[in-house]
Amino acid sequence: MFNRHLFPTVETALSDDPAVALLGARQVGKTTLARQIGDARSAVYLDIERPSDRQKLTDPEAYLSLHSQRLVILDEVQHMPELFPVLRSLIDEGRRAGQTAGRFLLLGSATGELLRQSGESLAGRVAYLELPPLQALELAQDQQNTLWLRGGFPNSLLAGSATKSLDWRQNLISTYLERELPSYGSRLPAQTLRRLWTMLAHLQGCLLDVSQLGKGLMIDAKTVHRYLDMLGDLMLLRKLPPWHSNLGKRLVKSPKLYVRDSGLLHALLGLASHDDLLAHPVVGNSWEGFAIETLLNAAPRDAQSGFYRSSNGAEIDLLIDAPGLGLMAVEVKKGTHAKPRRGFYSACEDLQPAHKFLVHGGADAEAYPVGDGVTAVSLRGLAHRLAQRP
Which domain holds residue 12? Predict the structure, then answer.
């Protein structure tokens, strides 16, 4: 059992709002976290994918009204969209009776679909929170490399061997290809979808080139965009946007693509061990994606993020702008003795960030200057700084 950092945030949200939507990819631990919260509140738990639980909701208004004094947890709620108008009615009725918080905890693994469905009926009544896979700050320092290799899905991380971990992740990928994506409207064969996902793995951290992907898959650009959006909605793919500013420079306008979980990335490439990973050309971009996910999940929810690249070679791997922290420019390197690139300094001259960091993969240690206002810090060290924001 892991102590998830989101636990107190969910508890606080349930104390303030009548409904909380907990979003996250399949198997990241949403149900485990929800049950932990529910046990302390004597909650009612319903799994919408279980036929017996769906049967209880044949008359949802009647059933949910029976439990109006208890927290009701609805798992995979996006598969029953007809519930949302009922929830709205019950929440409004409860408010009139003085029940203003802690009515429903909604779990979902498809961000776009759940946001669309709930947004139409529950606007102003629901708080949205995302549970990512396990993060570096939720584990000990000596588990960081295992987390990087296996990813943050608990069953993968805790598998008895590297082979069992890889098998589990490959089975999860097959589940998405053969079941999840078709259930959200995918019309492409599973084999084509696997090729797309594998191509994205080889292009980890690269700029989006729709024509390249479409040519490789023999599909049109519109279809490529649709499936990239679908993977994003399932919280499997991150599009890191370019940072725009009025500098009078020619800036890259395409987003950078990252398979969000490093374990899934390595499974798509068939990398079972650290030796396999370190010998593969994707190793640098894999670490970059792992670091970016770690930092963005530690940053404040209202932080703005992106990357910067200009036509003259100026580049910053990650920019984070958070209230109270100022603009942070981050260069990501795996080695502990690496130095920032010249393009990083050029980009910092353009943007004048409040803080400049070189993030390395070493153990937690005191941050130290490396010149020109840049501070070298471990990944966990900067993540701690973001998580313990003022």
Answer: 7-130
- The 10s digit of each residue's pLDDT in 341-388 is 999 999 999 899 999 999 998 877 788 888 889 999 999 999 999 998
- Whether 265 is in a domain gets the answer yes
Query: Which of 95, 115, 130 is the last residue before a domain boundary?
Result: 130
- Whether the CB-CB separation of 105 and 74 falls below 8 Å is answered with yes
Q: Structure tokens of 145?
A: 């490399």
List the CATH number of the domain containing 160: 1.10.10.10
3-class state of residue 265 by DSSP: helix
The verdict on 97 and 203 lying in the same domain is: no
Neighbours of 95 (CB within 10 A): 14
Query: How many domains does the chain divide into?
Result: 2
Show the DSSP H helices in the chain as ranges: 7-16, 30-41, 51-56, 60-66, 83-96, 111-121, 144-150, 154-157, 162-175, 181-183, 190-202, 210-217, 221-233, 262-268, 274-278, 283-298, 342-351, 379-387
User: Which residues are paired to 330 by β-bridges?
Assistant: 318, 357
The answer, as to whether pTM is greater than 0.85, is yes
pLDDT above 70 coverage of the chain, percent:
96
The answer to whether 106 and 77 have CB atoms below 8 angstroms apart is yes
Shared domain for 195 and 263, answered yes or no, is yes
C-alpha 373/C-alpha 359 separation (Å) is 14
CA distance 352 to 286: 28
pLDDT at residue 43 above 80?
A: yes
Calpha distance 49→57 (Å, rounded): 12
> Within this chain, do residues 322 and 363 fall inside the same structural domain, yes or no?
yes
Contact 19, 103 (CB under 8 A): yes
Cβ atoms of residues 120 and 230 within 8 Å: no
- Residue 1 included in any domain: no
**pLDDT tens readout for residues 208-240:** 999 999 999 999 999 999 999 989 988 999 999
Last residue of one domain, picked from the residues 74, 101, 130: 130
Q: How far apart are CA 139 and CA 231, in angstroms?
A: 27
